[in-house]
Amino acid sequence: MLKSFPEVDAGPDVTRQVLSDAPELMVVSFRFNANGATGALHSHPHVQSTYCKSGRFRFTVAGETFEIGPGDSFIIPSGAEHGCTCLKPGELIDTFTPRRDDFL
Predict the structure, then answer these.
(1) Residue 103, SS3 per DSSP
(2) Which of 57, 61, 74, 100 has a beta carbon 3.0–4.6 Å from 82's, enabling a disulfide?
(3) Could you tell me how many helices (H) and strands (E) the chain has, helices first?
(4) pLDDT band, residue 95 (cuts 50/70/90)
């Protein structure tokens, strides 16, 4: 049942690592290694839950902008345009349903 997935580049100063997956669910770590690193605005059909493990981030979701820090979490609805800017290096844990096959 345990699988190991590689850490891959997800943009300047950002890495992504799948932590676990099944067809209906996926858990992914995003590490932002520098202030100003970004997760570009995008959308996808998956429902996404984001948990801030460490660091500080400014998010925009469906036109609303807010900041999160350690322990904060929120849901991004299917199809909502979203992205973030790292304000303090840290890690986000994202869960997707269904699985993001493009990350495999």
Answers:
(1) helix
(2) 61
(3) 0, 8
(4) very high
Q: Cβ(72)–Cβ(28) under 8 Å?
A: no
Q: What does the pLDDT average to over 72-82?
A: 98
User: Closest by alpha carbon to 97, among 53, 55, 49, 50?
Assistant: 49
Distance CA 13, CA 89 (A): 9
Q: How far is CA 12 from CA 28, 30, 38, 50, 99, in A?
A: 18, 12, 8, 20, 24
pTM to 2 decimals? 0.96
pLDDT recorded at residue 2: 82
Beta strand 82-97 with 25-32 is: antiparallel
| pLDDT tens figures, 24-49 | 999 999 999 999 999 999 999 999 99
CA 82 to CA 101: how far, in whole Å?
19
